[in-house]
Specification:
binds zinc ion; 38% helix; five-stranded mixed β-sheet; Cytidine Deaminase, domain 2; 5 strands
């Protein structure tokens, strides 16, 4: 009987922990997507008219946003995710545990409301440098989002381990 009660208690505890983890993840997603959406407003995208916002969450749960910043010399431009990374690192953060990205075109005919935006290849590699089992929330204009891991987006990646660092 005592074993049965213990088993029941353990099951309840595990279930509660799973619920709390799930609630925390949902809360993180909402906070990060809100920060990314706010950063998106500042996008400098006069050439592509594709306005993107991103936000990263550092290990101490600080949230830092960024937007895409284009340039007349196209390769000089930077994506929203890397803007957020650069801001975070320049403020002393060295580890990122989550990232959200959201974006859609300013041209109404080009808007695809339910398409979740994923980071480009260069940003995936940039995020890998600061990866701490990173979760990425890929959001769409309609508020929907997909949760993926960086490992899913960038499998068999090149990283500091390859340089034995
Ligand atoms: Zn990018």
């Amino acid at each position: 009987m005592q074993n049965c009660s213990l088993y029941l208690l353990k099951t309840i505890l595990i279930f509660t922990e799973l619920q709390i983890n799930s609630m925390t993840e949902e809360s993180d997603a909402k906070k990060l997507i809100a920060a990314a959406t706010a950063a998106r407003q500042h996008a400098y995208c006069r050439y592509s008219e594709f306005r993107v916002g991103a936000a990263v969450m550092t290990e101490d749960r600080t949230i830092i946003g960024g937007c895409n910043v284009e340039n007349a010399s196209f390769p000089v431009g930077i994506c929203a995710e890397r803007t957020a990374i650069v801001k975070a690192v320049s403020e002393g953060h060295k580890s990122i545990i989550a990232c959200a990205v959201i974006g859609w075109s300013d041209v109404p005919q080009k808007v695809i409301p339910d398409t979740c935006l994923t980071p480009c290849g260069m940003c995936r590699q940039a995020l890998k440098e600061f990866d701490k089992d990173m979760t990425i929330y890929c959001a769409a204009k309609d508020g929907s989002y997909e949760t993926v891991t960086l490992a899913e987006l960038l499998p068999r990646s090149f990283a500091s381990k390859n340089l034995n660092v």
